[in-house]
Every structure is written in structure tokens, then in C-alpha cells.
Amino acid sequence: MTESDRLIFGPSARRPSNGLVASVMWLGGVIATCVAMAVGAVLAVFTAVAVAVIALFAAVLVFFAGLAMGARRKAVVRTRRADDVIEARKVDGAWVAYGWERPGR
User: Fold this and answer.
1) How far apart are CA 45 and CA 39, in angstroms?
2) pLDDT tens digit string along 3-34?
3) Which of 31, 51, 32 is nearest to 43 (CA)?
4) Burial code of 18-50, b = ≥16 C-beta within 10 A, e = fewer?
């Protein structure tokens, strides 16, 4: 390294003089890179699974909403027949019902 290189890159630009230290540092960098890639891959899989589960729940929700809307359109309003209504009167502070003990019920 020349003097101009030291001025440009600073004193930290010098490589370690010991080949063993440089090799250990390089191996540590490779291991850290592999671990970081593995963690990133696992997180990507978890994210994909979460998105798939959310999409599944959304599809089920839309399906049931469609069923509810279809049932609402097909709903028939039933009117009560006159013979289904019973009569009740208040007698001495109590309600008395008439017409509910018809035979055949």
C-alpha cells in the first residue's frame, strides 16, 4: 500500500498481517451470512402462510355473506292467519287468554 492509498482509505484499510485471523474472520462472515439468509427464508415462509390464512378466512366470510344475501332475497314474509291469534283480556289484574285450548293443536 502506498502513502496515497492510506490517505484515501484510512488506517483501517490495512489487512491483518496474520493469515489465520483473516481466515477466521472470513469464515465468521460466511457463517453469519448463511444464518441471516436462513432466518430470512423462515420469516418469508411464515409471512406467506399468514397471507394464505387471511385469504382463506376472507373467502369464507365472502361465501357466508353471499349465502346470507341470497337467503334474504328469498325470504318470504308470512302473515298470521286470524285463527292463529288468541284473545287475552285483563281480569282483576291478571291476564286471561281465550282460544288457545282448541282441539287439534
Assistant:
1) 10
2) 565 556 555 555 556 678 888 888 999 999 99
3) 51
4) eeeeeeeeeeeeeeeeeeeeeeeeeeeeeeeee
